[in-house]
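Q: My collaborator sent me two sequences in one message, no labels, and asked for predicted structures for both. Can we handle them in order? The first one she listed is below.
A: Yes, handling them in the order given. First sequence, followed by its structure tokens:
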Amino acid sequence: MNLPAARGPITAALFGRLTGPPGGEPLAVHEVDDEDLHLALFVCYELHYQGFDEVDERWEWEPSLLRTRAELERRFESALRELVPRPPAVPPQEVRRALTELVAADDGPPLSTFLQREASLEQFREFVVHRSIYHLKEADPHSWAIPRLRGRAKAALVEIQSDEYGGGRPERMHSELFRATMRGLGLDDSYGAHLGRVPAATLAISNAMSLFGLHRRLRGASIGHLAAFEMTSSLPNRRYAAGLRRLGGDATATRFYDEHVQADAVHEQIAAHDLCGAFARDHPSLAGDVLYGAACALTLERLWAAQVMSRWLRGTTSLLGEVVAA
């Protein structure tokens, strides 16, 4: 993957630094808009995943870059606190119920219904481009939590992640199934190919996963985020599969969505009860973090979907630049 085009002074300075040898002073982060901030933060996090072709791998743990990232994270965390009210505290034994109520109360835009019944092929392709930012590394951000858990919670997370990684069969990894969907839609399926085309709202979803996953202090938020992700997945994926079939998608193209209809129906029970419930019992003081992570996942997803839907209803692309249509 190559570095994308800069979106402001922070990314311009950051990318210029990253293409040189590691070292130097931290970047000064003053006024920064969402596009600049989230792209800069995403690139900093990506050094812990697959990295960039033109960036020396030693940058991953370069102290000056970590200090720059810490300031970007501080701003993102502050924005999340303003955006997402912290759910009321509950006893550990009530965490599963509270998660269920959070999900039930979410009233995000009917994006999945629109994709099932009305979306054009071009709009479905745009949707897949947005989702590629996460799905091409599906499960990786939440896997950071595995060594930070113990006992029943750890075993539950490993059980979920094993399915996400295909149970040891590379062709069944969910990231590989998503690649097949992209190819079926005539899209470039290479890792990070569309990073420069997605807006801040899309990047914020992935950035929250990485923020929670890469900080041990936020491990409760990380598993709560995963629980919300799994608990809101099965029905939308059924609709995505139906929408893609309506548009001519074959069994290979829809397999990613079909797989999630079944897998996530099981995962949501494991995530809510065995993962989050067990963690809250082991760490009662962090039960609130679990619910906060779930609330962040729901809120960022709702804001992203609202932005995409508003662009489509105005007859414009939801991506940066030209439409995706072949």
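Q: And the one she listed second?
A: Here it is, processed independently of the first:
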Amino acid sequence: MALRSTSSTDGGSTPDRPGRSDTGAAHPPAAASDRSAVHPVDELLPPARLIGSGLQHVAAMYAGVVAPPLIVGAGVGLSPGDLALLISASLFTAGLATLLQTLGLLRSLPWGRIGARLPFVNGVSFAGVAPMLAIAKEHGPAQALPVIFGAVIVAGTLCLLAAPYFCRLIRFFPPVVQGTVITLIGVSLLPVAVNWARGGESPGAPGYGSMRAIGLAALTLAAVVLGNRLLRGFWQQLSLLVGLAVGTALAFPLGLADFGPVKDAKVFALPAPFHFGAPVFDSAAIVSMAIVMVVSMTESTADMLALGRIVERPADEPTLAAGLRADGLATALSPLLNGFACSAFAQNIGLVALTKIRSRFVVATAGAILLLLGLFPVLGSLVSLVPQPVLGGAGIVLFGTVAASGIRTLGEAGLESGSHILLVSVSLGVGIIPIAAPTFYDAFPEAVRTLLHSGISAGCVCAVLLNLLFHHLGARSRAAQQSSPTP
């Protein structure tokens, strides 16, 4: 299905959009024409579809949410009980951040709207893992988490304040840049799916890369593809969830899944503010996390632009600013409940493209489910039964779909121009460097490595700079030369 703009002339979600009031809510359906004017993003689906589709989003992003607290918790030597609390806090704060993005709960604050009001999933940013481990190494296990939380609070506040300025970069994101970045998002995530398919552990771990693990990933991939081909209606849209269920069921007889996590999990646990101590504000740690936040803002901007094209509601400056404000506010508040920095989850963009379900209320339902998982660890343990190879098989479909959406956008942008070809080829090459050679930038300063080790950020910055070079610098003088009469 070709992408088309259903927005107003300014390209974004403006108050005068048909079917929407000045508060952003849908008009009462007085007639059939009014109902048809409601954008699919604002469509409220029946409860069964909301829950089923919301569960798909949770299943797609669960591993990404729990991985950072697992790694950081292990790095600071937390006990199993404290580690479980850290994971529950990450799930809970991811749910809050997702609800903030999808529903825009804080719309009348003096500094502007908060929340992109798109089907946009937020969770713990993986970009901050390496700097947080470095902070833990410098300050020791006893003070590590308070220092990390203090740095995250300041970084989130800076993001909140910088949002209205950062969003102005949208004019440097024409379709050729958007298509390049969207393609890079998918390509950058595919190695994650491949690692999951091999077992999700580090190379050398027992069973990593075994035939059982890869075979299970292949069977899950086949189940998703066949489900999408053979099922009809709403069940076809749930093909990913069906594939995950089939893969998990097959994992038990293969010895790749067990009910141990469910037996050991607590039934209910309230968030305990400042469980690990009051935040400590260390200047070096703050600088480190501020750099991470800039990287996260760049990726979130690219993700919102990608999602806007997929759901056919292009993200304009106000939408980007509102989304970045939600990132900043969620990040600043997250440490109060023992959580980390929050950012976009690109894998869920692939799920929106795959299922064609564009309702933001589906993702809001996923946010509510994440809240429940954070409050009821036993429910979270049920989701964690899905083994990594199963996620890997499904991830190949999800992340490949994102890359395909980027290729489609590039096709619409037109690659007849030599400057477009050069922009795409160089940006893709720069973005793929950290994927093909993860240690390529190891000799660079830490601040530079933080940016360049993210293929999405490196490729995005490269595409923006090349677009400036080809289409902005000297553009007025070239236009004047072309319009001046020949002597």
